[in-house]
């Protein structure tokens, strides 16, 4: 598997790619892809770092695992390929966008247009075995993505981190809250959303308000 990230990330992540844990992780992932069906496709594993360039990063959304069903995962957290049915969490994200912004429910579940505007859609684990949720956890991906969050916190200013659910909220300790904005809510999954922890968080309008107040372009959600 080729480690393919946009040039803007190279300086930030080059040392990480050379560390023993990352080399072991890549060996594991290559073997998994050779022997099993895994998602996303190999050329999309680092998609988050190709669509969203470092200097343009404004917002960070943290997911946990890629989707493990056929044709769903495309390397961007919560996103699915165009034409694929929207998973339950994405349905609730889109419902909140429609309610929060007064817009129509989005038809296309591919969130690449968010990423292209500076939204880093980062899963904590970047690969998964088909039909086996969490199968690539604790192999090194979390060390890598935690480092990404930490380095973003150190190197950048005024980023907006959207932490949805207990797992993502734990990442707050990696972020300097004096330099960045942290918005938290329940997870958009039905279990959390139906208990009242997701709907009404207005994270999309709040994000755009912060961006505009700081002289930056709002996201077209």
Automatic annotation (TrEMBL):
PROSITE patterns: U_DNA_GLYCOSYLASE
Enzyme class: hydrolase
The protein's Enzyme Commission number: 3.2.2.27
Family the entry assigns: Belongs to the uracil-DNA glycosylase (UDG) superfamily. UNG family.
Domain of life: Bacteria
Molecular functions per Gene Ontology: uracil DNA N-glycosylase activity
Biological process according to GO: base-excision repair, AP site formation via deaminated base removal
Gene3D superfamilies: Uracil-DNA glycosylase-like domain
Active site per UniProt: 65 (proton acceptor)
Keyword entries, A-Z: Cytoplasm, DNA damage, DNA repair, Hydrolase
Name this protein carries in UniProt: Uracil-DNA glycosylase
Gene of this entry: ung
Localization terms from the record: Cytoplasm
Purpose: Excises uracil residues from the DNA which can arise as a result of misincorporation of dUMP residues by DNA polymerase or due to deamination of cytosine.
GO cellular component: cytoplasm
InterPro entries, alphabetized: UDG_fam1, Ura-DNA_Glyclase_AS, Uracil-DNA_glycosylase-like, Uracil-DNA_glycosylase-like_sf
UniProt domain Uracil-DNA glycosylase-like: residue ranges: 50-211
Organism: Arenibacter palladensis
Catalytic activity: Hydrolyzes single-stranded DNA or mismatched double-stranded DNA and polynucleotides, releasing free uracil
């Amino acid at each position: 598997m080729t480690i393919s990230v946009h040039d803007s990330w190279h300086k930030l992540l080059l040392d990480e790619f050379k560390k023993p844990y990352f080399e072991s992780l890549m060996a594991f992932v290559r073997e998994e892809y050779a022997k099993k069906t895994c998602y996303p496709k190999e050329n999309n594993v680092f998609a988050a770092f190709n669509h969203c360039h470092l200097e343009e990063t404004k917002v960070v959304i943290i997911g946990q695992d890629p989707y493990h069903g056929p044709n769903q995962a495309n390397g961007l957290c919560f996103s699915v390929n165009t034409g694929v049915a929207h998973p339950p969490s994405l349905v609730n994200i889109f419902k909140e966008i429609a309610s929060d912004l007064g817009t129509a429910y989005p038809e296309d579940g591919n969130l690449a247009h968010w990423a292209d505007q500076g939204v880093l859609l980062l899963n904590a684990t970047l690969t998964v075995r088909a039909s086996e949720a969490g199968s690539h956890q604790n192999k090194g991906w979390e060390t890598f993505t935690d480092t990404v969050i930490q380095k973003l916190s150190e190197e950048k200013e005024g980023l907006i981190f959207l932490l949805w659910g207990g797992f993502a909220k734990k990442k707050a300790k990696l972020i300097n809250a004096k330099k960045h904005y942290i918005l938290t809510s329940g997870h958009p999954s039905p279990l959390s959303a139906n208990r009242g922890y997701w709907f009404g968080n207005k994270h999309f309008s709040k994000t755009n308000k912060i961006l505009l107040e700081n002289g930056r372009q709002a996201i077209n959600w």
